[in-house]
Specification:
This protein is about 50% helix and about 5% strand. By secondary structure, the protein is mostly helical. The protein has a domain at about 55-169: Replication modulator SeqA, C-terminal DNA-binding domain, CATH 1.20.1380. A three-stranded antiparallel sheet has the order 1-3-2. Helix 1 runs parallel beside helix 8 (about 140-155), helix 3 runs antiparallel to helix 5 (about 75-90) and helix 8 packs antiparallel against helix 9 (about 160-169). The N and C termini lie far apart (about 30 Å).
Length: about 170
């Protein structure tokens, strides 16, 4: 496997096209470029996608976007936390899939802050407001957007809503 450098906007676009947790960048690009899939051993079985209720999508997340609260907030970490808190309120069961979202070495979400601390030396775990979850916060804005995009995708949100929310972080 080769390593390539991508501009942040291309990386975010590819990450936003993820259909299931564990889908590799190669798989995403093959699908987008309509290239045949190579025979490979699956790393893990896809996680079932929880569907948000129509009321949750329309009222909670959309209300947050429409309210202007995110735009008023100067710090991306606070916008990130507001989005996570709203996603949990909209669909607590679907939000539990957040614990499946991981980086190469780091665990991003957990109900145990020690699990996050154990996955890296400078993770700076913080509690997601009004939820039983913790999230690492020592990441750049692009990584936070990627984490939200993966979470929202696994929760069943559409690409347009995901792009709108991630653009607001």
């Amino acid at each position: 496997m080769k390593t390539i450098e991508l501009d942040d906007d291309l990386y975010f676009y590819i990450a936003s096209q993820t259909r299931h947790i564990g889908e590799s960048a190669s798989d995403i690009l093959r699908r987008l470029l309509e290239q045949p899939a190579h025979q490979r051993v699956p790393v893990a079985e896809p996680v079932a996608v929880a569907q948000p209720s129509a009321v949750a999508t329309q009222q909670g997340l959309q209300a947050l976007l429409d309210s202007g609260e995110l735009q008023k907030e100067e710090k991306s970490i606070n916008r990130f936390m507001q989005v996570l808190s709203t996603l949990y309120r909209d669909n607590p069961e679907g939000f539990t899939q957040a614990t499946e979202i991981k980086g190469r070495k780091r665990v991003y979400f957990s109900q145990d802050p020690e699990a996050l601390r154990a996955s890296g030396s400078t993770t700076k775990p913080k509690p997601v407001p009004e939820t039983p979850f913790w999230v690492i916060t020592n990441t750049n804005t692009s990584r936070k957007q990627n984490m939200v995009a993966q979470l929202m995708s696994s929760m069943g949100y559409g690409d347009e809503v995901i792009a709108q929310v991630c653009g607001a972080i």
